[in-house]
Specification:
Strand content: 35-45%
Number of domains: 1
Order of helices and strands: EEEHEEEEEEE
Shape: globular
Length: about 120
């Protein structure tokens, strides 16, 4: 399984994530559309934080089911954490934070989060 490295803009938050990037999801909900995130979902155990947990801040709203994680210094959102519909921990990786990834090669699916 390939390992991908990623970070926020300033580098205070660094992470590694294992898996094949087969697609991204563009959501039009209020927070995703403002952040411009392009998300890739993986089981949470495939994400390893390479910097201290204290380098992250957390934002949660509405149903408080998703923990939106962002850098406490530069504000970039590298990933989020939640439970899948089956109750399993998942991470939503912001593909725009993965190093050396050719985003043009990743198929993007649109998700109507605004309708939820």
């Amino acid at each position: 399984m390939p390992r991908h490295l990623g970070s926020c803009h300033c580098g205070q938050v660094r992470f590694a994530v294992d898996g094949d990037i087969d697609s991204g999801l563009a959501c039009n909900c209020s927070i995703c559309s403002r952040k411009g995130s392009l998300l890739w979902f993986v089981p949470r155990q495939q994400l390893s934080l390479l910097t201290p947990e204290s380098s992250l801040s957390t934002y949660s709203f509405n149903s408080h089911r998703i923990r939106h994680r962002f850098c406490a210094r530069c504000g970039i959102h590298p990933f989020g954490e939640a439970l899948s519909p089956k109750g399993e921990p998942v991470a939503a990786i912001n593909l725009r934070c993965i190093e050396d990834l050719d985003l043009a090669s990743v198929p993007v699916h649109q998700f109507d989060g605004k309708a939820l």
